[in-house]
Amino acid sequence: MDLLQLIVSGVSQGCVYGLIALGFVLIYKATEMVNFAQGDLMMLGAYVAVTFINILGWPFGWGLLATLAVMALVGVVLERLLFRPMLGEPHFAVLMLTIGLGFILRAFAGAVWGNEPQALHAPYAGQVLRVGELVIGYENLVIVLGTVLLCTLLYLFFRFTRLGIAMQAASQNQLAAFYVGIPVKRIFSLVWALSALVAAFAGVLTAPVSMIDPLIGFVGIKAFAAAIVGGFGSLPGAILGGLLVGLVEQFAGLYLPPGYADMSAYVLLLVMLMIRPEGLFASMQQKKV
User: Fold this and answer.
1) What mean pLDDT value characterizes the chain?
2) CA distances (Å), 112 to each of 32, 116, 216, 260, in order?
3) 3-class DSSP assignment, residue 114
4) Torsion region of 57: left, alpha or beta (phi above 0 gives left; psi -120 to 50 gives alpha)
5) In this structure, what DSSP letter does residue 50 have?
6) 3 assigned to some structural domain
7) What mean pLDDT is predicted for residues 260-266?
8) Cβ pair 239, 18 in contact under 8 A
9) Domain containing 132: what range?
């Protein structure tokens, strides 16, 4: 039963890693940029939810929708003001810009909401589901179900909508997409909006489980490891990599000495780079011409 309990906790935490990794992959596939501020966007989304739900007293559902809308707008603004002018610049410059953005977002969150940990008021917080001797917190259950729902919606969006297909075309070949009439720059803005929305969704899901503070965005480093483990460029790989990191972390915390659990994600990353550098899903495709 302890094994099942560990698996439930690992899958729940892995879903959070997977959602943040999904944001990494979405931006990289479309723009070939690596956004190291993705975890900080999750943190900002959690604080925006706290504002709507805890401070303004909105119902949880409406607060979630408002948070997603605000964070999508934040993604568009960041792309237009910071990252669009960086198109064509060296990758190292873009990388440093995203790292600097993370520092700014953490300082902004500390100035606006303070550095004391806060909890998001969720109607399901503290409730448990008992299946025999297995105890599953509603917060963990909501994380898993929310991840499944979001991944299903993203699959349907990319598979059946014109906008989703246009995003895939732009990620394959920007010039060819432009020549066939796809507004590539607008697509980039929408990709950043979608990535920020996914990060905010992860923040709202994890906020009732762990306290929110400006430093929770550092979880994005583990999510980056998860994206590489799954195959940096594969959307299913991002989720699978997140699940693997979450499970390995839980089992390392049980069977290894204290302090080793936090190292496990990076050990897994190093092992994967040595035995299969392309990740579990080798979808780092060549651009089509």
Assistant:
1) 87
2) 32, 11, 16, 34
3) coil
4) left
5) H
6) no
7) 83
8) yes
9) 11-214
The encoded tokens of residue 133 equal: 């001797």
Whether 281 is covered by a domain: the verdict is: no
The one-character DSSP state at 288 is P
pLDDT at position 289 is 38
Residue 165 lies in a domain: yes
Backbone dihedral region of 287: left (phi > 0), alpha (psi from -120 to 50 degrees) or beta?
beta
Residues 95 and 35 sit within 8 Å (Cβ to Cβ): no
Please tell me the total count of domains within the chain. 1
How far apart (Å, rounded) are the C-alpha atoms in residues 32 and 165?
18
Is 276 a member of any domain?
Answer: no
Partners of residue 134 on adjacent β-strands: 131
What tens digit of pLDDT does each residue of 133-187 get? 788 888 989 999 999 999 999 999 888 888 888 877 777 766 677 777 777 778 8
| pLDDT for the residue 288 | 42
Render the burial of 73-82: b for 16+ CB within 10 Å, e for the rest: ebbbebbeeb
Name the DSSP class of 16.
H
User: Is there a contact between 25 and 238 (Cβ–Cβ < 8 Å)?
Assistant: yes
| Entry field: residues in the chain | 289
Average pLDDT over residues 236-259: 87
CB 89 within 8 A of CB 211: no
Mean predicted confidence (pLDDT) in 233-251: 90
How far is Cα 123 from Cα 149, in angstroms, rounded to an integer?
A: 19
Q: Between these two residues, 41 and 4, which has the higher pLDDT value?
A: 41
